[in-house]
């Protein structure tokens, strides 16, 4: 039976012209590190083959304070080691505005981007994504705002995170530049993007998919319910055959989809960051890939 082979070569970020690694490293839990620790983690991710680094202005916020802390810490790393910024494809997100849930008005998004650039200490980010959809923002206004960010050179490419299929289509209909990326939650335990047609849209439009929480919020590593345990068993069959961790098998399962989703690895553990490159040892067959899908669904396919 033929196997699905994964390779570490860089690939296009949609139609943006930006080239990125097949796996990204995320900074959701990055904000509390020291500058030295932060730099060590970033260098470990580079050593594991990562070039795409994902952060957001909300990362570090604990419900009371900390807004912007992850970006600020990354900015301090750049100030200490300016060459690191030039080596990475830097992605950040905005549009969440505590205590208001979401704000994608043109005025606020412009301020949010400028604040992110200031915290990071850079003039441009490679990818700027709307973090969560603002129901009160017309997609035409959002589209014009994103286009302006690119036009003035503050952003190379734009994308969206946590948008539904309909919300993505609506925004895209008003854009005159490519929508480079979608960032949904996607894992062997979160099949929404597969089942709602979001990944089909990504293939149709040549949009990159960045998968957040690829380990199901930790449930794949430490399964507690029957469904998670069944998925873990199916992943372990493949992981053991390749001599890798279950996490690597989970990343590979995501990456095997024809949209070639890019898992955003969130671990801050240096040993686990070093294991990122092991994903390329994993070989799924159609049978073993569908075994994981069936375990997640809890029922046979029709």
Automatic annotation (TrEMBL):
Residues 23-289 form the NADP-dependent oxidoreductase domain. SUPFAM superfamilies: NAD(P)-linked oxidoreductase. PROSITE patterns: ALDOKETO_REDUCTASE_2. It comes from the Bacteria. This is Aldo/keto reductase. It comes from Sphingomonas echinoides. The lineage of its organism: Bacteria, Pseudomonadati, Pseudomonadota, Alphaproteobacteria, Sphingomonadales.
């Amino acid at each position: 039976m033929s196997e699905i082979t994964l390779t570490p070569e860089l690939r296009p970020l949609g139609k943006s012209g930006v080239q990125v690694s097949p796996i990204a490293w995320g900074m959701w839990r990055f904000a509390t590190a020291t500058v030295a620790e932060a730099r060590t983690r970033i260098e470990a991710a580079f050593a594991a083959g990562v070039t795409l680094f994902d952060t957001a202005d909300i990362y570090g916020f604990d419900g009371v304070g900390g807004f912007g802390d992850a970006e600020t810490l990354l900015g301090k790393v750049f100030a200490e080691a300016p060459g690191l910024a030039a080596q990475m494809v830097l992605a950040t997100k905005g549009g969440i505005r505590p205590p208001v849930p979401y704000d994608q008005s043109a005025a606020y998004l412009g301020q949010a981007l400028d604040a992110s650039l200031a915290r990071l200490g850079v003039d441009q980010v490679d990818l700027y994504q709307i973090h969560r959809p603002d129901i009160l923002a017309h997609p035409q206004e959002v589209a014009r705002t994103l286009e302006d960010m690119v036009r003035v050179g503050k952003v190379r490419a734009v994308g969206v995170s946590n948008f539904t299929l309909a919300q993505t289509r609506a925004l895209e209909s008003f854009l005159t530049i490519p929508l480079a990326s979608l960032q949904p939650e996607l894992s062997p335990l979160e099949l929404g993007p597969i089942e709602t047609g979001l990944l089909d849209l990504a293939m149709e439009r040549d949009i990159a998919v960045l998968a957040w929480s690829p380990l199901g919020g930790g449930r794949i590593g430490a399964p507690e319910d029957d469904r998670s345990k069944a998925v873990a068993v199916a992943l372990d069959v493949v992981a053991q055959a390749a001599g890798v961790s279950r996490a690597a098998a989970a990343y590979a399962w995501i990456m095997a989809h024809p949209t070639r989703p890019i898992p955003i690895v969130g671990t801050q553990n240096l040993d686990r960051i070093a294991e990122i490159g092991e994903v390329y040892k994993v070989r799924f067959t159609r049978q073993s890939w569908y075994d994981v899908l069936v375990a997640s669904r809890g029922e046979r396919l029709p």
